[in-house]
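To the wet lab folks,

You asked to see what we're planning to order before we commit. Fair enough. Below is the target structure as tokens, and below that is the sequence we designed to fit it. If anything looks off to you, flag it before the synthesis order goes out.
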């Protein structure tokens, strides 16, 4: 109904690396005129800051002590995702192998999660038309009252093939090993691990094209909006 369409809608999309969270979330948000938040980019940004400032990544108490220092600002336009730390554009540097290999350790620290979770909730509340938020713990912890929760999966082989397609020169086998190592760390940490919320819809993207996944999620959002 017309009334329902005007209300903000909150969509949580979680899942492991390479399942299509970012591509799907951006496309769904753009198609439906919603904001978009990449929470992985925020954890990457705080990790970049720790590395740049010489913080010992193997020392959780050293990370916790400075977790409140960097100012992280996330853009929410799905057609121009942006992220800055203390005013510096870090959208490139947060994708380096060095940051990727350290982000699980930094994001396991409770003080880091508390700080970033608060930031994520304030961005979601401020999205007038609604928002698609993607990450690992959005449906379980950050936005447990989201209107729609999606949990994307795909086989490790499919995920590694997708990722190594992006990282030219890196072979599928080592990409697969690195992905599985990060999944294990993210799923086993104490504070809000990567997990499917009980009320999330699971979508296995292994044999689906990106357009098919987007269409599936858009349909689910429209159904939720109509029922609101
Ligand atoms: N269903 C799909 N089929 C094939 N490739 C996909 C699919 N979904 C995403 N991709 C591609 O896989 C790569 C990783 O997708 P991305 O959205 O970054 O995943 P995530 O955010 O879950 O890590 C990108 O190059 C993207 O274009
Ligand atoms: N909500 C989130 C999002 C990401 N993280 C952490 C754990 C992930 O390994 C890293 C990086 O996430 P990101 O989504 O950028 O990773 P991929 O692009 O899927 O490889 O951040 C998290 O702990 N909680």
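Sequence we intend to order:
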């Amino acid at each position: 109904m017309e009334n329902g369409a005007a209300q903000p809608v909150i969509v949580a999309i979680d899942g492991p690396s390479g399942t299509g969270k970012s591509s799907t979330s951006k496309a769904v948000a753009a198609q439906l005129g919603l904001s978009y938040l990449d929470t992985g980019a925020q954890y990457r940004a705080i990790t970049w800051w720790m590395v740049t400032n010489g913080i010992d990544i193997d020392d959780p108490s050293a990370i916790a002590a400075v977790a409140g220092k960097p100012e992280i600002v996330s853009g929410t336009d799905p057609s121009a995702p942006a992220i800055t730390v203390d005013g510096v554009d870090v959208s490139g540097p947060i994708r380096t192998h060095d940051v990727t290999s350290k982000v699980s350790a930094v994001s396991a620290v409770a003080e880091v999660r508390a700080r970033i979770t608060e930031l994520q909730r304030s961005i979601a509340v401020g999205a007038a038309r609604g928002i698609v938020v993607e990450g690992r713990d959005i449906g379980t912890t950050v936005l447990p009252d989201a209107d729609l929760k999606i949990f994307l999966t795909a086989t490790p082989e499919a995920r590694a093939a997708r990722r190594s397609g992006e990282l030219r020169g890196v072979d599928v086998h080592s990409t697969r090993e690195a992905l599985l190592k990060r999944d294990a760390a993210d799923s086993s940490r104490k504070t809000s691990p990567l997990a499917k919320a009980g009320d999330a819809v699971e979508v296995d993207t292994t044999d689906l094209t990106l357009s098919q996944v987007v269409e599936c999620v858009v349909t689910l959002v429209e159904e939720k909006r109509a029922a609101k």
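Structural context that might help your review: The beta strands are 9-14, 35-38, 72-74, 83-85, 88-89, 130-135, 148-153, 201-204. The first helix runs from residue 2 to 6.

Thanks,
Computational group
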